[in-house]
Amino acid sequence: MRQDTRRHPEEKEFIERVLEINRVTRVVKGGKRMRFRALVVIGDLKGRVGWGMGKAADVSGAIAKAVSAAKKQVTKLMFKGSSIPYPVRYTFKSAKILLKPASLGTGIIAGGSMRTVLQLAGIKDVVGKALGSQNKTSNTVATILALGSIVSLDDLRQIHDRHQDKPKLAKAAKS
Questions:
Q1: Could you say which architecture CATH assigns to the domain 15-72?
Q2: Computed over its alpha carbons, how large is the radius of gyration of the chain?
């Protein structure tokens, strides 16, 4: 019997999106050296998302390095559902991000790199606004960190209950 020698495309763990490719130069004694810098966001549409940046002499090398860096910085989101549980404001350097929950069927109302991050994270209904910088890298990182800072409502209730109990214990000890 013959062996199956056809190549099967491997299933990728993450979906990759290139957000930005820049040509950067370094001045050396003989002139300028050109390289490429790529900003990549990866996600699995199920709550895992990451970003990476890579530099290389050619575009494909820069993208490969960026994907490798992104896989090392994957963030697991700690909430379920098609939207975020509560509004979030987050600041990273000069980028200010505002994310608000939206009702079912609204879709993603956000622009630029924020939209890509939210899509790859698997969030379907959310309203987002970039208030500070328009830098794609800063907005990407700020969005991922904002999503990572969200905890589920059950965890939030437990934290709240713990803080409510502490003052009562302190008052009881003083009596």
A1: 2-Layer Sandwich (3.30)
A2: 22
Q: CA 118 to CA 164: how far, in whole Å? A: 34
Domain-wise residue ranges, the chain: 15-72, 78-152
Find tokens 């056809």 and name the residue.
6
pLDDT in tens, 30-75: 999 999 999 999 999 999 999 999 999 999 999 999 999 999 999 9
What's the CATH architecture for 78-152? 2-Layer Sandwich (3.30)
Task: Name every residue whose Cβ is closer than 8 Å to that of residue 56 and which is 6 or more positions away in sequence.
Answer: 35, 36, 62, 64, 65
pTM: 0.82
CB atoms within 10 A of CB 8: 6
Distance of CA 38 to the CA centre of its chain: 16
